[in-house]
Design brief:
The protein is of the alpha/beta class and 115 residues long. 30% of the residues lie in helices and 27% in strands. It has 3 helices and 6 strands. It has a 6-stranded mixed β-sheet with strand order 1-2-3-4-5-6.
């Protein structure tokens, strides 16, 4: 498994589960930048919407890239009512593209839904 840091560009998580490859775009729920005024504070509604939009674009582009090489595409982010509402607006497109939503629960567990 390979993970990108918050300052690196590219696919956030490249992983294998058995014979199955995964390319995962991950969005957090707070600012990861130490020293930022928002560090450790949950995002507001507009920031969550921004993360959903950027994440959706990224996973949709991943679904089209030759780098995919048969890997599953995942979009991971903290579950919240706002995030669920906006992901719900594109869930048909995500399913069509074969993108799996990976909701990160408050306890750190991951719920796999869609596609």
């Amino acid at each position: 498994m390979r993970r990108a840091t918050t300052k690196q560009r590219g696919i956030d998580i490249v992983a294998k589960r058995g014979d199955e490859g995964w390319l995962i775009e991950a969005k957090g729920g707070t600012s990861a930048r130490t020293g930022s005024p928002r560090h450790g504070k949950g995002f507001n509604q507009n920031q969550i919407i921004d993360r959903v939009m950027k994440g959706f674009y990224t996973v949709a582009a991943l679904a089209e890239t030759p780098e995919r090489n048969g890997a599953r595409i995942g979009f991971a982010m903290p579950r919240s009512p706002t995030a669920e509402r906006y992901i719900g607006m594109v869930h048909t497109a995500m399913a069509t593209l074969g993108i799996t939503m990976l909701w990160v629960e408050p306890d750190g567990s991951v719920a796999e839904v869609l596609a």
